[in-house]
Structures are given as C-alpha cells and as structure tokens.
C-alpha cells in the first residue's frame, strides 16, 4: 500500500507540491509567531539580566520601573546602602522615547546610569566595540539595533551625545534597543521641564496669591525651584551579599522605607505575566486560527484527491482490498502532505526570522511540538476523506 500511495502522489504531484508549499507558508507563519512570543519573553529576561540587580526598589504600590512609571528620590540609595545585606545600591532611570540621529527618529529606551564601571548594576555588561562611559555628560553607549556607530551624534531632548561604545542584545521588554547615558543627563531628559514650560510655571506661580507673601522673602523662588527640580529616579537597583537571601534584604526595606521591593522572580512575573500577557493571548488566538486554516486546507486537498479516484477505490474494493488498507493509503497521503508543509514552513521561518523588526527566537521544542501538531492535524483532516472512501460501493467500478 505504501507503493500504491506513492504512485498516487506521483500521479498528482503538482497538487501535492503546490499545496505543500501553501501549507508550508502557513506553518512558517505559525512557527514565526511562536518565535515572536519566545522573543518577547527572552527580551524581558535579557532586560533583567542586563540590569545586574537582585532587587528593584520602586515607588510604593507600583509595578515599576518597567511595567509602570515609578518615581523615588535620587538620594534614597544612600539609606538603602546601609541596610543589612546590601552590597550595592545605585540609581537608575528608564525612558522610552524617540532618539534623533541624522534626521531620523529611532525608538529607544534611554537608560540613565550612575558613575561607576562595567559590572555595576545598570551598566551594559559587555561591549562589542568602543568603551564604556567615562564622562559625566554627553556620552552614550548604544545597542547595535539602533543603527548607530562609534562617533555618531544623537539628540536626546535638547542635548547632543557622542556614541563611544556599542553593545548587543540590550533591549527593553518591548524590544526597543537601549541607549545608555549618564544619570544626570537622563534625569534632565525625563524630569526637567523645558525653558518655555519653566517660564509658564513661574508666571502661574507668581499669579498665585498664596506664594506672594510680602513677609516671606524668597518663598516664590523656592517654590519655583522645587517645581522644576529633577531630583528623582525611577528605581534603585540593589545587589545583595552572598550570605543573604532576597527576602531577608527586601523585607526591612519594605517595612522601614515604605517602598515596594521586587526580587528577580517577582519582576519576571510582572514582565511575562502582566506586561506581555495581552500580546501572548493575541498570538495564541492567531495560532489557533492558523491551525484551523491548515486543517481545512489539508482536508480539502485530500478530499479532492479522494473524490478524483472514487472509481479506482471501487475497483480496489471489488478485488477484495480491505477498508483498513484503503484508509491507510489516504492517511499516508495526508501525512506526506504534512511533512512537505512542515519542511517548507521550517525553512521559511528560519530564513524569515532575522528579517523581522522584533526579535524572533526559534527553539527546538517549538519545532518538535509543531511537527507533532502538523501530523495530528493531517490525521484529523483525513477523516472526512477516509469516511467517503469507505462508503464507496464496489459496484461503481463496473457502473
């Protein structure tokens, strides 16, 4: 029967090849979408790994600094540094924005890092070219995905920055490449208002009678200074001593500093379970739709091939061929179609993945699971054709 199925496939090889290519493109899209989800999860984990932190101290009752906005005083790190079990505590800011370079806008996550050295929390752990930031202002380290090169000038708000180093796979949870700049510059970009906004704020404050008390000199200037200051950061990254656990260090900070503290597992749950949960559900719906479409295509082509050889099936029954043998022939054709489609889909996904703007991570497990799913879909899709074949009357062979 294997020979019989093979002969029938060779007889209608055109339908098999073109249907297999079409099915393969659908399977390729399915594998790519699964890779997009895997890439989103990997982006979140890379973001946490690159931070080099064991704990994230953020504004109370927020999911910051990645899933929600968070704002804490920039002198908070000093008191956290004195807490038991804390080895390092550094400020960090994150700001997703458009960075201008050569007349083009590049969507990036701008990261403000404190003075230090490679290996400190928040710093890019490795460079592929150039050097780390050594000056307090106007230097930047950029990810290769930004398209920037060493020596390029980029605009962030009102200031110009020179790219002195390049890194790779330093991205936000949404896949935006990172640009690292000194903390003070990042605070200015995120919190400090522009000149027009400061002028309008001063005029509004001057018009407020509560701040124009004749007996309190300097009150107006103090109020304006407080309204335009930038003494905040998004989070404090904490690295703990080896002999302490994250829970032992986090609990005193929550109790005495009245702040929210997340460890690595909690932050990963926020990024994967909350931040990309909606995208994951959308991808899951598309995968279900693509699976149904693939099943419909396989069922249609196998049904068509079966109907085309109704007379031949009747002849087989007339000469005593068992129903199980006929069913096996149809099932083998469906499985061959699935194998052709999977091979085409896997090749398509492998070559198309690097062309996507988002990171696509193709893992072997997804390929194995996808192959098993394709074979299962082909088996189910062949049931209709098998039932039609088994109902064929042998008398049709001589009708």
Brief account:
The chain contains 12 helices and 12 strands. The protein is α+β, with helices and mostly antiparallel strands and 399 residues long.
Structural notes for this entry:
By secondary structure, the protein is α+β, with helices and mostly antiparallel strands. The protein folds into 2 domains: 2-44 and 277-397, no CATH class; 60-192 and 229-258, no CATH class. The protein has 12 helices and 12 strands. The protein has helices spanning 2-11, 13-51, 76-81, 183-190, 195-207, 219-227, 246-257, 264-275, 277-308, 310-318, 323-352, 364-390, and strands at residues 55-58, 72-73, 86-101, 104-113, 129-130, 139-143, 153-156, 159-167, 178-182, 232-233, 235-240, 260-263. Strands 1, 3, 4, 5, 6, 7, 8, 9, 11 and 12 form a 10-stranded mixed beta sheet that branches. Strands 2-10 form a two-stranded antiparallel sheet. Strand 7 and strand 8 (159-167) form a beta hairpin. The radius of gyration is 31 Å and the shape is elongated. It starts with a helix and ends in a 9-residue tail after the last helix.
């Amino acid at each position: 029967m294997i020979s019989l199925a093979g002969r029938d496939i060779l007889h209608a090889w055109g339908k098999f090849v073109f249907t297999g290519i079409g099915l393969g493109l659908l399977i390729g899209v399915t594998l790519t979408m699964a890779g997009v989800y895997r890439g989103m999860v990997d982006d979140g984990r890379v973001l946490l790994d690159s931070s080099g932190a064991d704990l994230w101290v953020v504004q109370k009752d927020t999911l910051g600094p990645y899933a929600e906005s968070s704002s804490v005083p920039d002198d908070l790190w000093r008191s956290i540094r004195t807490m038991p079990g804390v080895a390092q505590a550094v400020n960090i800011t994150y700001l997703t924005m458009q960075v201008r370079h050569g007349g083009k806008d590049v969507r990036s996550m701008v990261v403000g890092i404190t003075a230090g050295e490679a290996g400190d929390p928040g710093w890019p752990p490795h460079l592929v070219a150039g050097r780390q930031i050594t000056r307090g202002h106007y230097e930047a380290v950029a990810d290769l995905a930004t398209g920037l090169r060493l020596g390029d000038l980029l605009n962030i708000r009102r200031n110009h920055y020179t790219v002195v180093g390049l890194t790779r796979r330093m991205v936000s949870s949404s896949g935006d490449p990172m640009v690292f700049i000194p903390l003070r510059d990042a605070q200015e970009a995120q919190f400090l208002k522009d000149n027009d906004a400061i002028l309008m704020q001063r005029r509004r404050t001057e018009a407020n009678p509560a701040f124009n008390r004749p007996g309190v000199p300097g009150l107006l200037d103090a109020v304006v200074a407080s309204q335009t200051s930038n003494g905040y950061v998004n989070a404090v990254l904490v690295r703990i001593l080896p002999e302490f656990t994250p829970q032992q260090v986090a609990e005193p900070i929550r109790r005495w500093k009245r702040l929210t503290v997340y460890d690595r597992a909690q932050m990963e749950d926020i990024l994967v379970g909350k931040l990309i949960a909606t995208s994951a559900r959308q991808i899951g719906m598309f995968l279900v739709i693509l699976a149904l479409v693939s099943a419909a295509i396989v069922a249609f082509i196998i049904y068509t091939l079966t109907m085309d050889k109704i007379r031949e099936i009747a002849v087989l029954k007339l000469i005593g061929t068992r129903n199980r043998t006929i069913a096996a022939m149809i099932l083998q054709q469906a499985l061959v179609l699935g194998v052709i489609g999977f091979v085409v889909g896997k090749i398509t996904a492998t070559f198309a993945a690097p062309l996507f703007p988002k990171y696509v991570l193709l893992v072997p497990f997804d390929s194995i699971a996808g192959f098993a799913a394709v074979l299962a879909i082909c088996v189910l899709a062949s049931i209709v054709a098998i039932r039609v074949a088994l109902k064929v009357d042998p008398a049709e062979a001589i009708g």
